[in-house]
Amino acid sequence: MLNKEKLPYDLREKISDMFFTRIDTGESGAKVFKVSSDTASYYLKIETAAGELEEEYQKTRWLQGKLEVPDILYFGEENKNKYMLLTEINGRILCDKEHIRNPEAAIKLLAEGLVKLGGVDTDSCPFDNRLEKKLEKAAENVRLNRVNMTDWEETTKFSNPESLLNYLYKNRPPENEVIFTHGDYCLPNIIAELDEITGFIDLGRAGIADIWQDIALCMRSMHRNFGTRKYEELLLEYLGRKQDKEKLEYYILLDEMF
Ligand SMILES: Nc1ncnc2c1ncn2[C@@H]1O[C@H](COP(=O)(O)OP(=O)(O)OP(=O)(O)O)[C@@H](O)[C@H]1O
Ligand SMILES: [Mg+2]
């Protein structure tokens, strides 16, 4: 359990009388807690090893007023741990059963989310996630032994991260639809009421990239959460575009490096 006494003083002051619940999300590099009282609810992310929390902080800060994202109540580092406290976004994550039992409505929301992200003006955006940069980061993850093959998709037929990296360098698809992307556009990172997106969270990988960065991970997440690929066409219909199997497969493979 969390020892509140060990939290940085300025953070502790904001949440000392509140109740903590650990959110178990699985793949996370950070520990996430819901922190609540009778009058307020926040989310606290704590990172104890090298990770993306500082980038998430910078991107969430840059997006204030540009996109529906949480407010940042605290970010700080103490004794090599990083801490970020966020306001709660109202609504339910898209993998919540309320949304899952309304697949058509959920797919529409996912499409609307992609449109909102694409509406963020990239002119002054300092976060470049185009393939040149993204592959540099992938290569660094390989070099530092940070690629976890145990969570690879069953369909990923590479025997080691080096051979996948080599494939990714040699088979780069054209980046002809570069926009602002979430970077980890999966159902647990999008929050919505039944008919409206209320917020985007977990923004550590956000930045400028080809739109298929988000469409591909969205389709992978739809498959995981609905147990079928049959809604892909509906998503594409809402987006007014065609399937691109090459990019779909490429961006899912690329994500194995992160
Ligand atoms: N500001 C917020 N408002 C509402 N719910 C939140 C908020 N932040 C986090 N959550 C809830 O906590 C879950 C996990 O948070 P988040 O997605 O930020 O972390 P993660 O996926 O565990 O971490 P990582 O940063 O390592 O990818 C979310 O899926 C959501 O249910
Ligand atoms: Mg998440």
UniProtKB/TrEMBL annotation:
Mg(2+) binds at N189, D202. GO terms for molecular function: ATP binding; kinase activity; metal ion binding; phosphotransferase activity, alcohol group as acceptor. NCBIfam families: APH_3p. The active site is at D184. Residues 21-248 form the Aminoglycoside phosphotransferase domain. Belongs to the aminoglycoside phosphotransferase family. GO terms for biological process: response to antibiotic. The keyword Electron transport does not apply. This is Aminoglycoside phosphotransferase.
